[in-house]
């Protein structure tokens, strides 16, 4: 079921061979190159010829091992999951605390993994996406079983949430370039697997089960586009898809937006402004930095739970924008996380800037990934419980 650990990125063992040679580990070389390129450029931006060039072979050599790019992506995704699956399977007698510390170290070493699990896999055809997701569920199930073994009073659903939250925190290292996650992630994972589910300090933040469609045609188009971009990825969505989802003809979309890229920019701006508006509201209503951090966590859980597509677009759909827009969006994201980081440092002054930012990234990913995992977000009490996990990451008792 699992790719071997040798198929993950290990530069010392998987050096690029001279052209014309036939190394015995060619499949592993190809898979390793695919992992790096898919993580850095994205599934839609990588061609088989790019991967062939990176391992110094003709494209035809790739097709001897993989029928196409989709199959190669599946192999790459499995290769990034395999160290975690194999470690969990082999450590059945390892105490939970030691196990999660080891998993944190693995996540810090294999920092490309989360991008493939959390972002790029959704660009696959639905049936292939389910195949990759099944591998991720298997890892989560192994971890949930270990958590319940050492916390027998915890019910299966909460153990499952903690397992998925730990995977999300490990994946967070893929989405930033901060140094030293190996010193922060293990402690974060320990807090996650030992999260208590008493009454959190913040307000109840349950997702809304139903909603009412907007009347404005422009707003319907924008909401439909956001959902489709989040679910399938920008490159896979057509204007006709957007029109159909909005209940109008595809060409009618052009009465409101000049094209698909303008739609993406509007969706990004909407999500970005919503995040900043919620942050500003939390700061304005707060008594102090601790209260502000609790209020901000409440608002982020509400937004991610109710409008997960908006958060997904803000975090994942930048590569198809002009360079100036990419820079603007990334700067806004950086500044937003900085606000969280400075609040956290005011509450926990023992943290340096890098450690605080790493913890913030992990907590945000716990909420974001949880809200984008259908079987989690549909559960009664999801908002309150995922908030308790994120609070445990940021504010250990």
Order of helices and strands: HHHHHHHHHHHHHHHHHH
What is the SS-derived class? mainly alpha
Oligomer: single chain
Note the overall shape: globular
Write structural notes for this entry.
There is one protein chain. By secondary structure, the chain is an all-alpha fold. It has 3 domains: 5-71, Arc Repressor Mutant, subunit A (Orthogonal Bundle), CATH 1.10.10.60; 83-193; 217-394, Orthogonal Bundle (Tetracycline Repressor, domain 2), CATH 1.10.357. The chain contains 18 helices and no strands. The protein starts with 25 loop residues before the first helix and ends with a helix. Residues 1-14 and 200-204 have low confidence and may be disordered.
What key phrases describe this protein's structure?
397 residues, mainly alpha, Arc Repressor Mutant, subunit A, Tetracycline Repressor, domain 2, Homeodomain-like_sf, DNA-binding
């Amino acid at each position: 079921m699992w790719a071997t650990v040798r198929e993950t990125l290990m530069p010392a063992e998987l050096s690029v061979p001279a052209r014309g040679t036939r190394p015995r580990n060619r499949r592993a070389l190809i898979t390793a190159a695919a992992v790096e390129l898919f993580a850095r450029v994205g599934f839609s931006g990588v061609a088989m010829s790019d991967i062939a060039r990176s391992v110094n072979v003709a494209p035809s050599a790739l097709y001897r091992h993989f029928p196409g790019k989709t199959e190669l992506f599946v192999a790459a995704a499995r290769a990034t999951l395999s160290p975690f699956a194999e470690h969990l399977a082999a450590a059945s007698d390892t105490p939970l605390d030691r196990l999660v510390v080891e998993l944190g170290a693995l996540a810090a070493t294999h920092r490309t993994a989360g991008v493939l699990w959390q972002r790029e896999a959704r660009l696959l055809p639905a049936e292939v996406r389910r195949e990759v997701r099944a591998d991720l569920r298997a890892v989560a199930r192994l971890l949930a079983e270990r958590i319940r073994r050492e916390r027998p009073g915890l019910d299966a659903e909460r153990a499952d949430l903690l397992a998925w939250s730990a995977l999300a925190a490990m994946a967070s290292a893929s989405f930033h370039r901060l140094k030293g996650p190996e010193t922060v992630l293990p402690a974060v994972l320990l807090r996650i697997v030992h999260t208590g589910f008493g009454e959190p300090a913040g307000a109840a933040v349950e997702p809304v089960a139903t909603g009412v469609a907007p009347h404005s045609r422009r707003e319907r188009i924008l909401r439909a586009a956001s959902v489709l971009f989040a679910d399938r990825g920008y490159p896979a969505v057509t204007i006709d898809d957007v029109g159909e989802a909005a209940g109008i003809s595809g060409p009618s979309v052009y009465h409101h937006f000049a094209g698909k890229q303008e739609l993406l920019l509007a969706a990004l701006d909407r999500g970005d402004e919503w995040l900043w508006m919620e942050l500003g509201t939390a700061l304005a209503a707060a008594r102090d930095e601790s209260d502000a951090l609790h209020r901000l966590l409440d608002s982020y859980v509400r937004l991610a739970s109710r409008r997960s597509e908006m958060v997904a677009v803000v975090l994942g759909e930048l590569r198809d924008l002009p360079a100036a827009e990419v820079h603007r969006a990334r700067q806004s994201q950086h500044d937003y996380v900085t606000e969280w980081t400075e609040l956290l440092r005011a509450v926990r002054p023992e943290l340096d800037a890098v450690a605080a930012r790493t913890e913030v990234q992990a907590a945000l990913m716990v909420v974001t990934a949880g809200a984008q995992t259908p079987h989690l977000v549909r559960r009664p009490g999801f908002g309150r419980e995922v908030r308790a996990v994120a609070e445990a990451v940021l504010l250990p008792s």
